[in-house]
Amino acid sequence: VLFRSGNPSPTNRYLFNGDFVDRGSYSFENVTTLLAYKCLYPTSFFMSRGNHEGQAMNRVYGFEGEVKAKYDDKIVALFNEVFNALPTGHIINKKVFVTHGGLYSKDGVTIDDLQKPNRFREIPEDGVLCESLWSDPQPMRGRGVSKRGVGCSFGPDVTENFLKTNDLSLIVRSHEVKDDGYVVEHDGRSEEH
Predict the structure, then answer these.
(1) pLDDT tier at 192, thresholds 50, 70, 90
(2) Which residues of 7-29 are buried (b: 16+ CB within 10 A; e: fewer)?
(3) Which end of the chain is more exposed for a tag (fewer CB within 10 A), N or C?
(4) pLDDT exceeds 80 at position 193
């Protein structure tokens, strides 16, 4: 995307929305490139934590093994610290909520509520931090059990309620691969990229 759209700048901002690792044998190079861009362009390049930016997922899906094979345990520990420091969401132009996973198992969650949990830790198995990284939309109203066994599934009414509660217009998420690169759901209020 950087080769096609150009380097970050004050007029060409980027937000990478999680899952930078566990994507093959060059995850280390991928994430260090993104971190280098963040250092070079701190006000134009942003990163959100995804569900793969956690120790448990890194152990199962290969990033930990890759880093140990190329470097050592100390570098793995440093990446865990960096991943724990990444924010779990961003708001663009006061109207677009960007998070890796999705919405929450209870109504009334505010942006202020999302600031309260300590994010500088491993991803918990429940709560708003977990749901920000693991939840997925569903076509029917209400909430359901997540097919992933963690987080929840949320319907268009949940999306509408969250947006209204927080004076937002759109949710953008990146948790699932889509055949055409993106899909618009929930009456145009939720996009998956």
Answers:
(1) confident
(2) ebeeeeebebbbbbbbeeeebbe
(3) N
(4) no
* Angstrom distance (rounded) from CA 17 to CA 29: 17
- Exposed, middle or buried: residue 45 (CB in 10 Å: 0-12, 13-18, 19+)? buried
Q: How far apart are CA 14 and CA 182, in angstroms?
A: 17
Residues 33, 164: Cα–Cα separation, whole Å: 37
- Name the helix (H) or strand (E) containing 16: strand 14-17
Catalytic machinery residues: 52
Q: Which residues contact 41 (CB under 8 A, 6 or more apart)?
A: 7, 8, 9
User: pTM for the whole thing?
Assistant: 0.93
Length of the chain: 193
pLDDT tens for residues 109-151? 999 999 999 989 999 999 999 999 999 999 999 999 998 889 9
Q: How far is CA 107 from CA 20, 132, 154, in A?
A: 30, 14, 11
Instruction: Pick the closest to residue 46 from 79, 76, 18 (CA basis).
Output: 18
